[in-house]
């Protein structure tokens, strides 16, 4: 191969791509102002009632103290288009469930609205959707009782689609959300300790339309604000930090703080990281993970699955339960002719609610904090089993089972000798509502055997509706794996902003190796006489007679070796090596592929008016490169471009590439069946681009090589090869890879 400039160009492209990566990576740290030490944004909520009383936090007994609980919901996707789930699920939660549970806080972790245009693809912030959300929440019984100090929401990627920046008028979140700020940071003070709740807004500062915004970014300015909260919590001896984000931690590209601390340094103080965004990965999965420093719980969506989470903190022991709305059908199907305004006017659902049970002590072993957690939560003496039971009707009986054996002796609460006793207040209208029940229990004596045991609490109300909760406990205070499959408990541990770029780069390198290195290494090692490309076709036609011809042509840029072909060729050579040699020997196929894969490294995926809500050209114009986005005069490094190139290379390009290799090598007419297969695969690849095509102006895509030029060339090449083989070669599918 005499074209050394091909090699030099490829090396230069890789160097330039690395240079681009460093430029966009530095964009995360482009905010040079040191924001550390600024505590102005902290919201102080003081629930301290008795400043003189000393609460005993070392013994977990039958006193209704040292406990609070809150609810998390995520991915509501309120939509004026979708008629299944979404707004009806939220309406049931707000009007039917919250008055029964009455949590201290409700946290909404993003994707409040769906922002889909009428074609279900294009992104557009819709005022009707935001108004419906705001009206439902602010006019609810729960909100009127607890006001703004109880409801906090944050943005998800759907809430920031097509918004040039947070302060832009296109950002309807700042007008109709409850928080109205890009993040919330709460210092919650009680008689028995202080706690921190903070949000991490990982939405890009400049939000293009779907399908981008899939991954999150936290630049230096944002991470400094987060560090301020964690530093404040540490200096004020806060016992737990609960961090909320729409994006799971493994989908966020995080900068370092101004004093050079990393996310791993900061996360040592987090107890729970609570997120959404991934729904159930389309396979009905619960995604929980134990990280080195903290526990992460991703929550299924409210949109389709109607899932909500209750988290309780009892004597600093954390417990949680992910529950599904008790509606007749999940997802609930709305009447087709009902809009959001019609649903708002409907009375609340007339559906019974089974008792909702949450065991708060002993602690479930799967939620035991890491040994690296700061501050250390020391084990406490446990004298009672404690459980929260939320119910519309009075609780009639409570039963306790351990390892399948009934432990409670008297279940009926009407009996003064009942095992469980109400130690809180079950009056739904009371400001002191706390449906807490306790049973005296010497578990540390009977079950302190180094093993894990299964505890079930079952509650029955006056309408004979049943609710129960199951935990695993031990007295070693050792963390155990989540009781889900191995993929679900490890999925959140793969750091995608590092994994996807490496995988993407590996695929591009692999394509270059397959295109050139493997065929020419094989030829170099198996022959000594060169024959030019133009002889290949004639050679393959003559090889049906097991003869070898030597024909040369000075016009070809590539050469392959004349090889005395053995009568019995190896399978790998006939079906894999030879087709790629034939492909790499054809400059009309090799050059386009080689240089388009170079383009993937350095060229823009998209550029143009990607945020049509911007007022100026600077706000509207966006360039998307492999390593990041340049928008509104700023460069941001995030992983969306890697992800879409990875999908492109793994699916569409693999299919089209193998078709071209196959058609270039085989020398016969295609069967009708194979022709239809080829056409269907072409249709599949075109359809996979339809979402991106409709999300932006089609003219933008036509001007972008990544999404249009290369695929058009591939499709035309496939059709040309099909036609050429049909006109030039004999029929007979069996001769496609005939041994020659």
From TrEMBL:
Keywords: Membrane, Transmembrane, Transmembrane helix. Residues 70-280 form the Calcineurin-like phosphoesterase domain. Residues 354-466 form the TMEM62 Ig-like domain. The keyword GTP-binding does not apply. Pfam families: Ig_TMM62, Metallophos. GO terms for molecular function: hydrolase activity. It comes from the Eukaryota. The chain crosses the membrane at residues 5-24, 494-518, 571-591, 641-663, 670-686, 706-727. InterPro entries: Calcineurin-like_PHP, Ig_TMM62, Metallo-depent_PP-like. This is Metallo-dependent phosphatase.
